[in-house]
């Protein structure tokens, strides 16, 4: 029975939260499989707006069991802040499950994130400062703290000692910061143990049993394809696998169980933080997209960099993720433009590239080759079927579909839950 993966196709903020919410009343589990509270998903339900960071967007759907799986890094303080804020707004958060194998973000990860960024100077990544990179580095270095370690004080103390051993030398001698006390970290973490106990589970087992029983599980990716640590614009990426393969390793559900891969893609492109972005605009068109699309980060409030749609990136996302369906979002933002450029290939120092170049320097030097499509001026926010869209908007979607390597099954025409045109059912 259906296991569905939902990922971002570009550099994040495509509207994954809204797409998850759209499926919320028809799925039994929503699983976050990568990243942490670097994500920012805005979901608009009626006149209520929710900003989720660490929790899967499915927590807003009453029937859903939200799961934080093993591939996630969990800042426990943020976890309880977010749970309390949602509870106070009447959201039932009691069903949340967290993998015993998920790693923990602590204060020293946040500190290291900030100091390493500062030391990188001009070469900085522009991270969200949430400790994501250092927590994943500890995981790969095998000095991470996992959820299950919190339930044995002796083990926890040994592991925190192990983790801080080198870091304190680094903080003191290289970064000129104070050393971090093992006791402080351990006491802080132990303070959460009783509240965590009922949530922590073998989520891989739970999810496989749910699939065996014919239930529907949606795996919601944080970040996006071009921020994936293997397939994105390294080193200007996040530290996890945000592509569909990450749903398997990040949850303990095997690749052959996935039935469908949905990628969410914006009708134009945005990026937060540093790194290459071929279609980036520095003129009034870029400003238009930023203000019409309200492109300011949900997590850090930073203005997002904006640019036109990049078809080679969409094709790349289709290939890397095995996309079966795209959800095209924010088509309404393009209303009012006379002509809409779409990048169909790149020029790299005189050579044409039809696909995303594997060499990072080439991608840095890529200038877009555009095709211009006619725009429309009619308000499309009320469209609920494809034929409600003006001809030029329909043609824009069909042209993108043609270039992007998979069908465009749903089209977002506004931030609200019902502002969507469904062409092919997603479940
Ligand atoms: P995520 O990180 O992929 O979940 O995306 P974000 O929530 O960070 O950013 C997407 C923003 O676009 C949010 O503010 C959404 O409410 C909004 N949004 C999503 N779909 C649409 C759409 O079709 N039209 C418009 N105008 N806004 C949308
Ligand atoms: P959602 O899930 C957009 C970016 C940061 C930075 C880089 C590394 O809302 O789409 P990190 O803190 O992860 O080490 O930062 O990745 N980044 C995002 N950009 N949307 C996100 O999440 C992002 N999560 C991380 O801006 O460039
Ligand atoms: Mg976001």
UniProtKB/TrEMBL annotation:
Write out the catalytic residues in the record: 13 (proton acceptor), 41 (proton donor), 139
Compartments annotated for it: namely: Cytoplasm
**Keywords assigned:** Cytoplasm, GTP-binding, Ligase, Magnesium, Metal-binding, Nucleotide-binding, Purine biosynthesis
In terms of Gene3D superfamilies, this protein maps to: Adenylosuccinate Synthetase, subunit A, domain 1, Adenylosuccinate Synthetase, subunit A, domain 2, Adenylosuccinate Synthetase, subunit A, domain 3
Report the cofactor remark.
Answer: Binds 1 Mg(2+) ion per subunit.
What Pfam families does the record point to?
A: Adenylsucc_synt
Q: Could you say which residues bind substrate here?
A: 298-304
Catalysed reaction equations from the record: IMP + L-aspartate + GTP = N(6)-(1,2-dicarboxyethyl)-AMP + GDP + phosphate + 2 H(+)
Which residues are involved in binding IMP?
A: 13-16, 38-41, 128, 142, 223, 238, 302
State the pathway, as annotated in the record. Purine metabolism; AMP biosynthesis via de novo pathway; AMP from IMP: step 1/2
Which SUPFAM superfamilies did the record assign? Answer: P-loop containing nucleoside triphosphate hydrolases (SSF52540)
Residues the record lists as binding GTP: 12-18, 40-42, 304, 330-332, 412-414
What residues does Mg(2+) bind to?
13, 40
EC number(s) from the headed UniProt entry: 6.3.4.4
What GO MF terms are annotated? Answer: adenylosuccinate synthase activity
Q: Which InterPro entries match?
A: Adenylosuccin_syn_GTP-bd, Adenylosuccin_syn_Lys_AS, Adenylosuccinate_synth_dom1, Adenylosuccinate_synth_dom2, Adenylosuccinate_synth_dom3, Adenylosuccinate_synthetase, P-loop_NTPase
Say which enzyme class the record assigns.
ligase
Q: Which cofactors does it use?
A: Mg(2+)
Subunit structure of this entry? Homodimer.
Please give the family membership noted in the entry: Belongs to the adenylosuccinate synthetase family.
Q: Which NCBIfam families match?
A: PRK01117.1 (NF002223), purA (TIGR00184)
Q: What does this protein do?
A: Plays an important role in the de novo pathway of purine nucleotide biosynthesis. Catalyzes the first committed step in the biosynthesis of AMP from IMP.
Write down what this protein is called.
Answer: Adenylosuccinate synthetase
Q: Which source organism does the UniProt entry give?
A: Protaetiibacter mangrovi
Q: Which gene encodes it?
A: purA
């Amino acid at each position: 029975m259906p296991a569905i993966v939902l990922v971002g196709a570009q550099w994040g903020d495509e509207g994954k939260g809204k797409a998850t919410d759209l499926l919320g009343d028809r799925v039994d589990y929503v699983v976050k499989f990568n990243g942490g509270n670097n994500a920012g998903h805005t979901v608009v339900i009626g006149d209520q707006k929710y900003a989720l960071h660490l929790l899967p967007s499915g927590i807003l759907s009453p029937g859903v069991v939200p799961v934080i799986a093993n591939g996630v890094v969990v800042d426990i303080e943020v976890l309880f802040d977010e749970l309390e804020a949602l509870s106070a707004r009447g959201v039932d958060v009691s069903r949340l499950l967290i993998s015993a194998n998920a790693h923990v973000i602590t204060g020293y990860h946040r500190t290291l994130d900030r100091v390493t960024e500062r030391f990188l100077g001009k070469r900085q990544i522009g991270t969200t400062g949430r400790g994501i990179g250092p927590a994943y580095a500890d995981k790969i270095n095998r000095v991470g703290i996992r959820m299950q370690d919190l339930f044995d004080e002796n083990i926890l103390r040994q592991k925190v000692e192990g983790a801080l051993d080198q870091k304190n030398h680094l903080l003191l001698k290289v970064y000129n910061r104070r050393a971090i006390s093992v006791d402080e970290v351990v006491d802080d973490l132990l303070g959460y143990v009783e509240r965590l106990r009922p949530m922590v589970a073998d989520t891989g087992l739970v999810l496989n049993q749910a699939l065996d029983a014919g239930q529907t599980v949606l795996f919601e990716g944080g970040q996006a394809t071009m921020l994936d640590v293997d397939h994105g614009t390294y080193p200007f990426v996040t530290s996890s696998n945000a592509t569909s393969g990450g749903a398997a390793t990040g949850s303990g559900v095997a690749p052959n169980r996935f039935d469908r891969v949905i990628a969410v893609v914006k009708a134009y492109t945005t990026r937060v933080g540093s790194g290459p972005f071929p279609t980036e605009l520095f003129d009034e068109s870029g400003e238009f997209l930023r203000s019409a699309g309200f492109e300011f980060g949900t997590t850090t409030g930073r203005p997002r960099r904006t640019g036109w749609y990049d078809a080679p990136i969409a094709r790349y996302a289709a290939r890397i993720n095995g996309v079966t369906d795209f959800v095209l979002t924010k088509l309404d933002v393009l209303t009012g433009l006379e002509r809409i450029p779409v990048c169909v290939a790149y020029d790299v120092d005189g050579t044409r590239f039809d696909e995303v170049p594997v060499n990072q320097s080439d991608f840095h030097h890529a200038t877009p080759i555009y095709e211009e499509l006619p725009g429309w001026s009619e308000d499309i926010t009320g469209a609920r079927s494809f034929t409600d869209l003006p001809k030029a908007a329909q043609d824009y979607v069909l042209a993108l579909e043609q270039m992007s390597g998979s069908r465009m099954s749903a089209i977002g025409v506004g931030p609200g839950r019902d502002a969507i045109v469904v062409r092919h059912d997603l479940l």
